[in-house]
Write a structure and sequence with these properties.
Blueprint (H helix, E strand, L loop, with lengths): L2 H6 L6 H10 L7 H15 L2 H12 L4 H26 L24 H15 L2 H13 L4 H20 L9
């Protein structure tokens, strides 16, 4: 399914999502790389193959190979880290916070993408995955790298829209044309 076909397949009850998708992908606060990297990372994290495939196909022409790799790496590593650190935060046993993670996390340093953009993608995926500890950590990191609050919220708008679309893309038959 192409990106246009995916957008056209969004059911009428999700019209707000369809309209939001168009606007959030064109926010002036984000570069094209930041916007499409966020969309790739969040669509992978949202676990809807049709949505991910359509976003990936569209983004492939807009992102460098390094940025595309970095966006996917952000989704992959945050998929693991968000669960681990969310557990530490939820568990009342403070001992867990003193024990080492002992999980390989080399892609955080070896992703090949712009470091600030990679942190932004990790932040967006952490928001999708609901990890407060990781959201706080990556929000702090992007701010240290010079990304402002407006840019952060622009990426989170993409994350919210993509996450909501994952529940509806492919859930209903395509509308009659």
């Amino acid at each position: 399914m192409t990106y246009s076909e995916m957008v056209d397949s969004i059911p009428d009850y999700a019209k707000d999502l369809k309209l939001n998708l168009t606007s959030v992908m064109e926010q002036s606060e984000l570069t094209a790389q930041q916007a499409w990297g966020t969309a790739v990372a969040c669509s992978l994290a949202a676990r809807n193959r049709e949505l991910y495939g359509a976003v990936l196909a569209e983004a492939s022409g807009k992102l460098s190979p390094q940025a595309l790799f970095g966006a996917r790496a952000a989704a992959a590593i945050m998929g693991m880290n968000n669960i681990f650190y969310r557990f530490r935060h939820f568990a009342s046993n403070e001992k867990y916070g003193t024990l080492p993670a002992r999980l390989r996390m080399q892609s955080i340093r070896n992703h090949g993408a712009d470091p600030a953009d990679f942190e932004l993608w990790c932040l967006a995926v952490s928001a999708v995955n609901g990890c407060q500890v990781c959201v706080d950590s990556h929000e702090h990191a992007v701010r240290e790298k010079g990304i402002g609050e407006e840019t952060v919220l622009a990426a989170i708008r993409i994350a919210a829209t993509i996450h909501a679309l994952a529940a509806v893309v492919g859930a209903d038959p395509a509308p009659a044309l």
